[in-house]
C-alpha cells in the first residue's frame, strides 16, 4: 500500500509521507537528485524543485483512491472532510429548473459549488450547467494519478472562483502500458446495481520523444427509483403544531412521526364544504378520510399513511456515462514539446421527481360527470355548486428528470525550457476550447390549460353541437369549441383515468443549451537572481477567456406547464488577466511568497487579487505557515443571463391564515452583478518529528469573509417579509391567476447584497510503520467547522455550522475520516471510519415542549431541534497476482459495512417536504450496505 500524502504546503510535486527507511527531510533531496520530472503544481505558479508554498494542500494518489474502490472518483473526493454540500446525482435530482440534475460538482468549506475552482491538470474545463459547474465525471478517470485539494483562496494564482479553494485533477501524462478495470456493485437489498469498464493505454515512440495516451470508460448505474427503505416509512415530518396559538406556550412547530398531508390523497379528497373528508379510492370508491389532529397542510395520526408520497423520488438516479480521451505529445527539439489532447464525454441521467401535488387547489363543479352517484346526490341535496379537491394524482405518471449532456474539450499547446540568468526558465502556452451541449427534459408533466379543460367533464345533452349521444362524457369546453381535441379526464379515484386523457394532458417540456469556453494562456517561471538563502523565483503569466451560452426552447414549452417552463438564455463575457508571483528566501528556513493578479471583465470592469504568505521551519521537525489573500468570484453565465426559469413549490402564507399555498417561483439573471470579494487568512503548522519516523501531522486554521456575495432571497422569506409590510419585497410578489396554474408568483433574482463568513480548523495526520513483512498505514482527516455565517442584510443573520437539516448551506460541526490499511506482498486490506457530528435543524430555533416564548419569523419554537450524527464503517481488500509482465488484481469493497440507516431528518413544513425522503441526502449514507467487486489488470 502506498504511503499516503499529507495536507502539505502545496509542493511542486505531491509531497508524501516518506517510507520508514528514509527520514522525512530526505524527500526534497531525493526529488532534486532525480531531476524531479515534470512538475505539476496547485496553489502556486512557482516551479522550483523542493519548494513548498504556504497554502495547505491535501493530496490523494491513485493508491489511496483504488484502495476503497469507489464507484467514481467524485464519491471518494467527497468523503474528504473539507468538502461538504457538494452536488451529486442523488441530492440534485430535483433541480430540473437549475439544470444541475446528474452533475457531480465539488463544494469546499460549504461555501457553494460556484466558489470552488475545479481544474484538470491546472487548466479550466467548460461547465456542464448554466451555473458553470464542472462535472468531475467528465474527466478521464483511468488517467488520474492524483487529486490535489487546496483548502484556501487561490485567485491570485488561478483566477476567479477559487474563493474556498481549488481541486486539481492531475493526469499521468507519462503512463506507458495497458491497464483496465471491470467492476460491479449492488446493495445488500439487491438493488441500485452499477457497473464500470475503463481501459487505458500509453506508449512512447520516436525514441521516447513522442507519447500517446488513450482512455475510454463506460459506467452505468441502473438506479433505484423510489425509496424502498424502512427508515423512510415512518411519516416523519416537521409540521405546524395543530395546538399552537400565539401566547399559549405551545411550540409552533413539531417534529413528529405518523404525520402526513391533510389536503391531498392519492385518489383525491374533498377539502371544503360539508363534504370535507370525502375521498376517492380505487375505481372511484368513496370513503371518509380521517384527518386525525391537523393544521393544514399537515395532520398527525388518522389516515396519515394513505397520504405518503415521499417514496416516489429516485434514491439513486439512473446514469449512463461514456467517455473517451486522447493525448499526443512530441518533443520536436530539446526543451520544446508540442501537445494536443481531445476528450469527449456523454452522460444520460434519469430520475423520478415525485408526484404532482395539487394541494386543495383543484376546482370540481358539481355537475362533473365523473362524480360518483352517491356524492352527486349529496351535492345536490346540499346545494353545493362546486368543491375543491386535493390530490397527489395517483393516475398521473411519476414526473421525471431526463437529462442528456455531451461535452467536448480540445487543448493544443507547447511547453519547454530555456536558459535564463543562472538557471533554466520553464514555460507553457496553450489554447483550450470546450463545448458542452445539454438537453434538459421534464417528462410526464401536465399542461395547465389542457388539464383544466380535461378535468371539467360533463354529460352531453341531447342535440349538442358535437353530435354525440346524450349522456356521453365530454369536456365542457368541447360543447362550445367542437374542434379543440379535449379528452375528458377523471381525477376522482385511482385507476380511473383513460390513457387517451393522459396523453392529452401530458407533455415533455425541454430546453437545449450550449456552453462554450475558449481559453488562451501563457505562463513563465524562472529564478531571477541568487540570495544567500537561495534563488528569488518568479512566475508570470497571462490568460484570456471567453464564456458563452446560447439556448433553444420550443415556444409551446416556454410557459403553461406544471414544471419546466424553460426560456432560452443567451449571453457572453470576456476575461483578460495577468499575474506575477514571487518567492523570496529570506534566510534558511524562512520563505516569503506573494502574488498579484489583475483581471478585467467585460461585464463589470477591473479587479485586483493578491496573496501574501510565509513559511518558517525553525527545526526540521516543525514547519509554520500563514497566508493572507484577497480573492474574487465573478458572476457566472446563469447569474448574469438566465432568461427565466419557473418552478412550482409551496410556501406558508401568513396572509392566508398560514395556509400552505402553491406558488410559481421565477428566477432571472442580473447583468449588473459584480464580482464577489473575499478576504481571508490562514495559519498552520506541519509536524514531522524525527523521533517518530513515518509520522506527520498538520493543523490549519482558516478565516474567510466574503463581501458582496451573490445570492437571492428565497421565496418563503419574500412572502413573509411582504406580509409584514416591507414594500421592497412586495414588488417580487404577484398575486392572482397566472400561466402556471396557481395564484401566486414570486420572482427570485440574484444581487450583490450578502456577506458570508467561514471559519474552521483542518486536521490531518498519517503514520506508516512496518509490522512483520508488511506495512501498516494510518491516515486521519477531520474538519472542525467553526463558522459559516450568512447575512443578507434583510433577514436575521444565520449561523449554519451545527445545522444538519436539509436547507442549503447547512454545515455540521465535525466531519472526519480515518483509514487504516495493511499491505504485504500483493495483499491489501483497508478499514475506513467516516462520520458526521450531531446537529440541529436550525440554530435560530428555540427548543421547548411547554411554556414556550412567542414564536417569530426569526426564532421559531419547536419541540425537538436535534438531529443525530452518524458513523459508518467501510472495508476493502484486494489481492494482486503477477503473471510474467502482467499484473492481475482482484478487489472487493463493502461500504456501510454495518448497514446503518441514515439519521432521521424530518422535512417541512413548506417547500417539497411532502415528497422529500426523511434524511439529509448530502450528509448521510442513503443506500445501506453496498458491495463492489471487480478486477484490475495492467501489462
Name its key features.
disordered N terminus, 939 residues, 4-stranded mixed β-sheet, 11 helices, 51 strands, mainly beta, 22-stranded antiparallel beta barrel, single chain, 8% helix
Distance between the termini: 19 Å
Q: Please state the structural category.
A: mainly beta
- Note the beta-strand portion: over 45%
How many whole angstroms does the radius of gyration measure? Answer: 30 Å
Please mark out the parts with pLDDT under 50 across 5 or more consecutive residues, or reply none. Answer: 1-41
**Major beta sheet, specifics?**
22 strands, antiparallel, barrel
Instruction: Summarize the amount of helix as a percent range.
Output: under 10%
Total count of helical runs of at least 4 residues:
11
Number of strands: 51
Give the overall average pLDDT: 90
What is the molecular shape?
elongated
Amino acid at each position: 500500500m502506498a504511503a499516503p500524502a499529507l495536507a502539505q504546503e502545496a509542493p511542486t510535486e505531491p509531497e508524501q509521507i516518506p517510507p520508514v527507511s528514509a527520514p522525512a527531510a530526505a524527500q526534497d533531496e531525493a526529488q532534486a537528485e532525480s531531476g524531479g520530472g515534470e512538475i505539476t503544481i496547485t496553489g502556486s505558479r512557482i516551479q522550483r524543485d523542493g519548494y513548498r508554498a504556504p497554502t495547505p494542500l491535501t493530496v490523494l494518489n491513485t493508491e489511496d483512491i483504488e484502495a476503497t474502490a469507489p464507484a467514481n472518483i467524485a464519491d471518494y473526493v467527497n468523503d474528504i472532510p473539507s468538502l461538504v454540500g457538494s452536488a451529486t446525482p442523488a441530492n440534485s435530482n430535483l433541480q430540473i429548473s437549475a439544470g444541475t440534475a446528474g452533475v457531480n460538482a465539488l463544494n469546499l468549506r460549504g461555501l457553494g459549488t460556484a466558489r470552488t475552482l475545479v481544474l484538470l491538470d491546472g487548466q479550466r474545463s467548460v461547465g456542464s450547467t448554466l451555473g458553470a459547474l464542472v462535472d468531475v465525471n467528465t474527466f478521464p478517470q483511468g488517467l488520474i494519478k492524483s487529486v490535489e485539494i487546496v483548502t484556501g483562496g487561490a485567485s491570485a494564482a488561478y483566477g476567479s472562483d477559487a474563493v474556498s479553494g481549488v481541486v486539481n485533477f492531475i493526469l499521468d501524462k507519462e503512463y506507458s502500458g495497458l491497464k483496465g478495470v471491470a467492476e460491479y456493485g449492488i446493495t445488500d437489498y439487491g438493488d441500485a446495481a452499477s457497473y464500470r469498464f475503463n481501459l487505458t493505454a500509453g506508449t512512447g515512440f520516436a525514441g521516447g520523444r513522442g507519447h500517446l495516451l488513450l482512455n475510454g470508460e463506460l459506467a452505468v448505474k441502473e438506479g433505484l427509483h423510489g425509496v424502498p427503505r424502512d427508515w423512510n416509512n415512518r411519516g416523519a415530518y416537521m409540521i405546524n403544531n395543530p395546538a399552537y396559538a400565539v401566547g399559549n406556550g405551545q411550540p409552533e412547530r413539531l417534529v413528529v412521526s405518523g404525520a402526513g398531508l391533510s389536503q391531498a390523497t392519492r385518489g383525491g379528497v374533498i377539502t371544503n364544504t360539508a363534504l370535507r373528508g370525502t375521498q376517492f379510492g380505487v375505481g372511484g370508491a368513496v370513503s371518509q378520510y380521517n384527518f386525525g389532529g391537523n393544521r393544514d397542510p399537515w395532520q398527525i395520526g388518522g389516515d396519515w399513511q394513505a397520504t405518503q408520497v415521499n417514496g416516489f423520488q429516485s434514491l439513486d438516479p439512473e446514469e449512463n456515462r461514456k467517455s473517451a480521451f486522447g493525448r499526443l505529445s512530441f518533443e520536436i527539439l530539446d526543451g520544446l514539446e508540442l501537445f494536443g489532447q481531445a476528450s469527449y464525454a456523454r452522460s444520460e441521467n434519469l430520475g423520478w421527481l415525485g408526484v404532482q401535488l395539487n394541494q386543495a387547489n383543484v376546482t370540481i363543479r358539481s355537475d362533473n360527470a365523473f362524480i360518483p352517484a352517491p356524492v352527486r346526490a349529496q351535492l345536490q341535496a346540499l346545494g353545493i355548486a362546486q368543491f375543491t379537491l386535493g390530490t397527489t394524482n395517483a393516475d398521473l405518471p411519476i414526473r421525471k428528470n431526463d437529462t442528456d449532456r455531451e461535452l467536448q474539450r480540445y487543448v493544443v499547446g507547447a511547453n519547454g525550457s530555456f536558459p535564463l540568468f543562472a538557471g533554466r526558465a520553464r514555460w507553457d502556452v496553450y489554447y483550450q476550447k470546450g463545448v458542452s451541449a445539454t438537453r434538459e427534459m421534464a417528462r410526464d408533466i401536465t399542461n395547465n390549460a389542457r388539464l383544466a379543460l380535461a378535468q371539467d367533464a360533463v354529460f352531453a345533452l341531447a342535440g349538442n353541437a358535437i353530435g354525440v349521444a346524450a349522456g356521453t362524457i365530454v369536456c365542457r369546453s368541447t360543447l362550445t369549441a367542437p374542434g379543440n381535441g379535449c379528452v375528458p379526464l377523471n381525477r376522482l379515484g385511482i385507476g380511473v383515468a383513460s390513457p387517451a386523457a393522459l396523453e392529452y394532458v401530458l407533455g415533455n417540456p425541454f430546453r437545449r443549451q450550449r456552453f462554450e469556453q475558449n481559453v488562451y494562456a501563457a505562463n513563465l517561471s524562472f529564478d531571477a537572481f541568487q540570495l544567500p538563502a537561495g534563488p528569488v523565483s518568479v512566475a508570470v503569466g497571462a490568460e484570456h477567456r471567453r464564456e458563452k451560452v446560447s439556448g433553444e426552447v420550443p415556444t409551446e414549452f416556454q410557459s403553461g406547464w406544471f414544471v419546466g417552463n424553460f426560456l432560452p438564455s443567451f449571453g457572453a463575457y470576456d476575461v483578460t488577466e495577468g499575474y506575477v508571483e514571487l518567492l523570496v528566501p529570506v534566510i534558511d528556513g524562512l520563505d516569503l511568497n506573494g502574488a498579484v493578479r489583475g483581471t478585467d471583465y467585460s461585464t463589470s470592469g477591473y479587479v485586483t487579487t493578491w496573496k501574501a504568505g510565509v513559511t518558517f521551519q525553525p527545526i526540521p521537525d516543525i514547519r509554520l505557515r500563514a497566508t493572507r489573500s484577497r480573492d474574487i468570484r465573478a458572476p457566472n453565465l446563469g447569474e448574469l443571463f438566465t432568461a427565466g426559469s419557473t418552478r412550482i413549490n409551496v410556501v406558508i402564507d401568513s396572509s392566508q391564515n398560514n395556509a400552505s399555498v402553491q406558488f410559481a417561483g421565477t428566477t432571472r439573471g442580473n447583468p449588473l452583478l459584480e464580482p464577489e470579494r473575499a478576504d481571508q487568512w490562514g495559519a498552520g503548522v506541519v509536524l514531522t518529528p524525527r523521533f517518530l519516523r513515518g509520522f506527520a501531522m498538520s493543523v490549519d486554521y482558516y478565516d474567510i469573509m466574503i463581501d458582496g456575495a451573490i445570492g437571492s432571497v428565497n421565496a418563503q422569506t419574500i412572502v413573509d417579509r411582504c406580509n409584514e409590510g416591507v414594500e421592497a419585497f412586495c414588488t417580487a410578489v404577484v398575486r392572482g391567476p397566472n400561466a402556471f396554474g396557481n395564484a401566486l408568483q414570486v420572482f427570485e433574482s440574484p444581487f450583490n447584497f450578502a456577506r458570508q463568513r467561514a471559519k474552521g480548523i483542518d486536521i490531518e495526520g498519517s503514520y506508516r510503520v512496518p509490522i512483520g513483512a508488511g506495512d501498516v498505514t494510518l491516515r486521519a482527516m477531520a474538519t472542525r467547522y467553526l463558522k459559516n455565517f450568512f447575512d443578507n442584510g434583510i433577514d436575521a443573520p444565520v449561523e449554519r455550522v451545527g445545522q444538519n437539516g436539509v436547507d442549503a448551506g447547512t454545515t455540521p460541526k465535525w466531519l472526519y475520516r480515518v483509514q487504516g490499511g495493511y499491505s504485504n506482498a500483493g495483499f491489501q486490506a483497508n478499514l475506513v471510519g467516516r462520520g458526521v457530528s450531531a446537529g440541529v435543524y436550525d440554530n435560530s430555533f428555540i427548543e421547548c415542549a411547554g411554556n414556550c416564548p412567542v414564536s417569530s419569523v426569526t426564532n421559531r419554537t419547536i419541540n425537538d431541534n436535534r438531529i443525530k450524527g452518524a458513523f459508518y464503517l467501510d472495508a476493502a481488500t484486494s489481492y494482486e497476482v503477477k503473471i510474467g509482465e502482467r499484473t492481475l488484481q482482484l478487489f472487493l469493497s463493502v461500504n456501510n459495512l454495518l448497514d446503518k440507516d441514515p439519521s432521521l431528518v424530518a422535512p417541512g413544513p413548506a417547500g417539497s417536504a411532502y415528497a422529500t425522503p426523511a434524511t439529509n441526502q448530502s450528509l448521510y449514507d442513503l443506500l445501506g450496505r453496498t458491495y463492489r467487486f471487480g478486477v484490475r489488470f495492467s501489462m
